[in-house]
Design goal:
Blueprint: H1 4-7, H2 13-32, H3 38-55, H4 64-74, H5 80-109, H6 137-151, H7 157-173, H8 177-181
Helix pairs in contact: 3-5, 6-7
Length: 193
């Protein structure tokens, strides 16, 4: 038995360009299924195009020194959160390449896809996913119970009562702070309870 890769001629620039276009189209197709994350996808695909334009070659050829040059020189004047967002978008692009096309890229170019942004050279900053875990019913009851008792002895009743009512309304109905802020007495339907 012989390995077919030994017989296959190296891919030409046109073939690699077509493959890169197909890979990007596959990324777009996969990401459009995540309708709830459209802004993140738009940032990620825009970053893919920006880095690709700067790099001048397919992204799978990028090495850690190239990433250092991009983030250290090209993006030096950009704010740190923007650099961090771009680094995370680039990591997402490479995650897609590694999961979906690692073998094809190796067969086509002989390169092994590896993300150039590792733990050593990633931009400083913290951008952790903020998980919102709802409080247990007992915790909510304890919070509002203590707050209700405080209403009887508070110094500025109007302010504390307003804050209590707004917080209670937000917890019961699910309003956001900005939505509760825009409420008026005319918005309350007393006859409906």
């Amino acid at each position: 038995m012989r390995d077919l890769r030994e017989v296959r001629a190296p891919a030409g620039p046109e073939e690699i360009e077509r493959f890169e276009t197909d890979v990007f189209a596959g990324f777009v197709l996969a990401a459009t299924r995540l309708a709830c994350r459209t802004t993140r996808f738009a940032r990620t695909s825009a970053t893919w195009r920006q880095v690709r334009t700067w790099f001048g070659k397919p992204l799978w050829d990028m090495l850690p020194p190239d990433a250092d040059a991009y983030f250290g020189m090209v993006l030096r004047p950009v704010l740190i959160p923007t650099r961090l967002a771009r680094a995370q978008a680039l990591k997402a692009n490479f995650e897609f390449l590694e999961l979906r096309h690692k073998i094809e890229i190796h067969n086509l170019t002989g390169r092994i896809v590896e993300c150039p942004i590792d733990e050593i050279n990633r931009p400083r900053g913290r951008c952790k996913a903020k998980l919102r875990i709802p409080l247990a019913a007992e915790q909510i009851a304890r919070l509002f119970g203590g707050w209700r008792r405080e209403l009887a002895t508070c110094r500025k009743f109007g302010t504390v009562a307003r804050n209590y009512a707004a917080a209670r309304l937000m917890s019961e109905v699910g309003l956001r702070v900005n939505e509760a802020r825009l409420l008026d007495l005319a918005d309350i339907k007393w006859d409906l309870g």
